[in-house]
Amino acid sequence: MTFIVKTRKVLLNKLLNRRQLSVELLHPNKPTPSQESVVKELASKYKADERNVVVYGLKTTFGGNRTTGFALIYDTQQYLLKFEPKFRLRRRGIIPKRDGSRKGWKEVKSKLKKTRGSEKTKIYISRKTDKREVIRAQKETYLKGFVGK
Amino acid sequence: MSGGLTYFNEDFPVYSDLVSTINDQLQSIDNLHVITCTTENKNNISQYLRAKNATMTKYLIHLNMYLLHKLNYGNLDEFPIDQLIEDKILLQKIIQAQKKLQYSIDKLSKYQDTQTNEDDQVVDQVEKLSLKPRIENLHKDETIDKASNPNQKYVPPKLAATLSKNDLNKQKQERREELRKTQKKANLIRSILDDQETDKPKEMTERDLQQLYYGRAEDEKQIEKRKYEEDHMTRLPTTRDEKRRERIAERKANVTRLDDFQEFETINKVLNKGTKKIKKPLGSKLKGSMKKILKRKRR
Lengths: 149, 299
Hints:
Chain A has helices spanning 35-46, 77-83, 86-92, 102-114, 118-127, 132-145, and strands at 4-13, 18-26, 53-60, 66-74. Chain A is built from six helices and four strands. The interface between A and B is medium-sized, with 18 and 16 residues.
């Protein structure tokens, strides 16, 4: 281990079935540790599956040697899929990324501002890629392939 | 009976003298009361003195009766002893209170002495100047020997020992040291227990945070932002001001480093950016015979 992990504000969130904590990493004279290394370290310390640990918001302070971030440790993968926002699931590869470009979406948005009524909904539906049913199906396929430890 | 009488006969003259002095004092108190006084305190004091002497005489009279009753083999049950006890207690209380009024009583008595006239009549008005303290009556230290001070120089009195401020500070320091020792021991034990219990990472307390951020120049806005981010488990976007501040801080930080000599090269490059290299003429580097050859050729 090339860095030291310290925690703060450890909270057991029973409503969302997870432990949420703010993490502080000390890595003198070394670059910022990667998210994967931090996930491994936390999983080993808290005796949890690596796939149930989520780390985000890592930010190094000015001058280096110290980074702060946040971590969520879910009880099971199902709760993770249920409560985690979609953009984080996309980062992990559970949900495939959006098709289309950013520019295309901005064009659609400008069209939506000009239209009203049923036409507006049609345009919105045609462009919307992350429909609820589609995402649900993607999650189910992922869970089927998931093998617990 | 004879033994008691002999004691009584021996003490009787003393007793009679005391009673006569009491009678004289009573008369002087009456005179005081007659004097027209402007302040209220003096009236009260004279009344107090009259009351005191009256109770004393009453007590003495009762005592006399008790003695005579006893000498005549009288029945003591019939004698009211409670009255005697009451008078004695009263007198004791009065004498205790007299300590507080002693000064004013002395002033009154002095005032009475100073009040004289050609016809020995009491003067109405008070002369305040007559009540001034007299330096002549100051107590002189007769213990000083002339042999020790032949010139009789002034010897200042020795200062009494007092608690200095240093002693008080020492006590405070000792207490602080004791606290530190106990805290160190507690921290040691806590660390040992923490290591033994679990592999979980160490949880930082608010005090550790304070020590971390102690000495850092943090604005109120930065502190507020940090607290908000930690409470809500989110990261707020960086503003333009923050980016600008970071750039300025980077520049400042880079200047202070002395061990990095690459900066001098960059500084030199920046300084010499606008300047062009001046080309030296041919032959300037040559020495000796080669120079002569070139000169001939140019000719």
